[in-house]
Amino acid sequence: MDKLNFINEELDKLKEAGLLINVRTVEGPQGAWITVDGKSVLNLSSNNYLGLANDLQLKTASHNAIDTYGVGPTAVRTIAGTTTLHKVLEQKLAQFKGVESAVSFQSGFCANLAVIPAIVGKEDVVFSDELNHASIIDGCRLSKTRVVRYKHGNPKDLQDKIHAEKDIRRKLIITDGVFSMEGDIAPLPEIVEIAEKYNAITMVDDAHGEGVLGRGGRGIVDHFNLHGKIDIEVGTMSKAFGVVGGYIAGAKRLTDYLMQKGRPFLFSSAVTAADVAACIAAVDTLNKSDDLVKKLWSNTRFFQDRIKQLMFNIGMTRTPITPVIIGDAKVAKDFSQKLFDVGIFAQPIGYPTVPAGKARIRVMLSATHSEKDLTYAIEHIEKIGKSQGVI
Predict the structure, then answer these.
(1) Which end of the chain, N or C, is less surrounded by CB atoms within 10 Å?
(2) DSSP run (H or E) holding 336
(3) What CATH number matches the domain at 22-49+290-387, 3.10.350.10, 3.90.1150.10, 3.40.640.10, 3.40.50.10190?
(4) Of the listed 86, 97, 171, 208, which one is catalytic?
(5) Active site residue 107
(6) Confidence band (pLDDT; 50, 70, 90) for 55?
């Protein structure tokens, strides 16, 4: 008897439902146009919001760091020591976010796995938006705390549920800043008001807000002018910053504590010097100019206005994340393949990443796109949408 036969059965089920993910191969650097599976395609699937992933200044900084520090950190920072580069990045991130301190991690996912179990445990309750990212869900599981999910972006439901809880040691409210599959923004001012009323700790994962919202891309806290009101800010360096890594920003006592208690910090090697140097260059770029952020938003308005005029359903997005909602997963997958056939790389997203029946093509806009690029995409999305009966 084949003890792993269940794997074949599960893969067959995913294929039959149109949910089997096709991982494409990218041959070369990120940009507006990239080579995927040997084909030149317009890139509408990347989180490279500002086009920094192939920026010359970032690449130069990375090369120089390799010459100075080599290619690997060799162990965790608490054992092998940390580099001056890691400390510089953390100082610059704290300044950029307008907080006392920041501590860096291997990814945004690792940052959530570090902070949630360190802050709450079995005696506590986490109040979590029902559409929060998988890394928040997994961080809550690791903490063994009880999780109360509130309706997506619904402050009233959050208040009702937090009011119903009695005799709790700690309350932690967690929300994404920008929701990665919907493109909408958390109602952070209302969340802060509820947290203050019920003495709850506040945490926001700003992975898709940095480089997008706020002054020069400083994120959702800056967007709503809530500096000093959010206890824990989680960020990533792999999206708008164009590199890799994550961080937590807030009070110095918080970051000091996480360097003692955050398991990914304590038990996994640090990000390489080359990556950290590129991250520093990315932060410096945003500190110098907001031109890329302005270009990103110009492209967003151009694309979304025309897609809405064609009567596509793009949900409640308020950011460059543009979900072209199809519904059926098989139709969405076929839609994506037809786009690829005409030179457009836009991946389908289905269950369990999004709810069943709400499969979509998630279009990710970037400052690298030209108006000509976006017009090309709009024309073909319209043609395919009509041929499939989506519009």
Answers:
(1) N
(2) helix 329-341
(3) 3.90.1150.10
(4) 208
(5) no
(6) very high
DSSP string over 249-310 = EE-HHHHHHHHHH-HHHHHSPPPPHHHHHHHHHHHHHHHH--HHHHHHHHHHHHHHHHHHHT
Three-class DSSP category at 35: strand
Per-residue confidence (pLDDT) for residue 111, from 0 to 100? 98
pLDDT at 317: 97
Would you call 180 a catalytic residue per the annotation?
yes
pTM: 0.94
Q: Do domains 22-49+290-387 and 70-288 have the same CATH topology?
A: no
DSSP notation for 48-98:
-TTSGGG-HHHHHHHHHHHHHH-S---S-HHHH---HHHHHHHHHHHHHHT
Q: At what angle do helices 291-309 and 273-288 cross, to 10 degrees?
A: 80
Residues 232-236: what's their mean pLDDT? 98
End-to-end alpha-carbon separation of the chain, Å?
49
Does pLDDT of 81 surpass 90?
A: no
Domain boundaries of the chain, sorted by first residue: 22-49+290-387, 70-288
Q: Cα separations (Å) of 380 from 175, 220, 289, 302, 350?
A: 35, 33, 34, 16, 21
CB 128 within 8 A of CB 148: yes
Q: What does the alpha-carbon distance between residue 174 and residue 119 come to, in Å, rounded to a whole number?
A: 12
Whole-angstrom distance, CA of residue 18 vs CA of residue 339: 17
Give 187-213 pLDDT, tens digit per residue: 999 999 999 999 999 999 999 999 999
**Both tokens of residue 138?**
């997994």
Question: Which CATH number does the domain 70-288 belong to among 3.40.640.10, 1.10.3210.10, 3.40.430.10, 3.90.226.10?
Answer: 3.40.640.10
CA distance 370 to 32: 8
Tell me the sheet residues that pair with 280: none
Residue pair 218/97 in contact (Cβ under 8 Å)? The answer is: yes
Among residues 128, 180, 238, 366, which one is catalytic? 180
> Among this protein's residues, is 166 annotated catalytic?
no
Question: Could you read off the pLDDT of 159-171 as tens digits, one per residue?
Answer: 999 999 988 999 9
Angle at the Cα of 31 from the Cα atoms of 107 and 388, rounded to 5 degrees = 100
